[in-house]
Amino acid sequence: MKQFNLSQPIPAIFDELRTVLAVHRSGSMAEAARVLGVTPSTVSRQVSRLREVLGFYPFVKSDGNWRLNPSLMNLIEAFENAEGMLANELRRLTQNQANPDAKREVKIAGPTSIIAHVLIPQCPDLAEKRPQVLPAFERRVNAEGLGLNDIVIAFHPPSAGRFKVRRCATFDYALYAPESWEMGGGWITLIDKFAAAHIKEAQRIFGCAPSLKTDSFDQAVRAMQILGLAGPLPRAVARNAPGLKELDVEDLAVTVDLFVIHHESRSDDPEIRATVDWIIRSLKKIEEAE
Q1: Dihedral (C-alpha) 130, 134, 138, 140: value to the nearest 10 degrees?
Q2: Which of 84, 102, 227, 229 could form a disulfide with 188 if both were Cys (CB 3.0 to 4.6 A apart)?
Q3: pLDDT in tens, 41-70
């Protein structure tokens, strides 16, 4: 087995570590290749190169995704932290030399209900206070870590990793139905991936199995309005859904915590800080309205 020359650790394997970090974030060699702008074969070759250097394979395959070998976690976290610090300093230097008014994309991931009904309506506030930030939203629910995003809004804090986590607000859910709906008229819920914990209780209340399942609350609202179904909705979504009334059923009135997460290496990044502050302001406005 080829041995690694420890006298030059980072320069010798920088590209390999960067590739492994991309695969770790995305869970896919194909997606890592897209992000890095290389071919999947290049990604595979660099992962194999790191295996030769370390003497063990950097990943294990689980549920169709590539999971980082636990033995590498500290090394990859250290590399991610260093890369983030380098990127922040390079960005600061180049902004002074290049176009200071150029927009910078900040990737924000979270549930569609929060993106569509909380953050997007508040985008003018971000544009006014931080015009150089270009928010790029991605739907993401119940996933661990940041993936390829700068900031994540989640219902649970990450179980491990060097993240800055702020519990920032709560998000309320209740049962809604069209004005003409009566008990026994049918109901809708999200698919089991998102709503398994509440489906049994909902079946007890409604006295029957759901008539329909969907993977987003916006689809649920459309079905409720067209098909005359009842169902659980976030109050932030229901406020923008004409023709629906809240049902007086406290058993399924749920409040969950919301967390805003970013990597600790980005804590000194002014655009990340400003975007996190804007997200928290936006979520607190919804919390206060409820």
Answers
A1: -30
A2: 229
A3: 999 999 998 888 888 888 887 776 778 888
pTM beyond cutoff 0.90: no
Burial class (CB in 10 A: 0-12, 13-18, 19+), 27: buried
Give whole-number Cα distances, 92 to 87, 268, 270, in Å. 9, 11, 10
Least reliable range by pLDDT among 6-15, 211-220, 259-268, 272-281: 6-15
83, 86, 138: which is closest to 112 by C-alpha? 138
Structural domain harbouring 128: 101-166+260-289
Looking at the structure, do residues 43 and 187 belong to the same domain, yes or no? no
Contact, 217 vs 190, CB < 8 A?
A: yes
* Residue 188 tokens, joined: 């809708």
Q: Is residue 53 part of a domain?
A: yes
Residue 112 resides in a domain: yes
